[in-house]
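In this supplementary section we document a worked example of the pipeline. Step one takes a protein sequence of length 72 as its only input; no multiple sequence alignment statistics are reported here. Step two produces a three-dimensional model, which step three serialises into structure tokens for compact storage. The input and output of this example are shown verbatim.
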Amino acid sequence: MADLKYHIVQTLVVFPADGEFHKELNLIEWGDHKAKYDLRGWNSDRTEMTKGVTLSKEEMQILKEKIGGIEL
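The serialised model returned by step three reads:
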């Protein structure tokens, strides 16, 4: 498998660590594609990552609207 190419354009949120990995919400360019919002776990030096979720700007806008109505 070829190396996965990505560029973290902007880090938006860093969540507290849960063991070896911590979760981050970033804006990431994957390969030659337009940047997307990305939520996944990273180790402390960002050399390893867990499976995550990527969202387009439109999907992130929907999530932002919906999450405001969730009672915690």
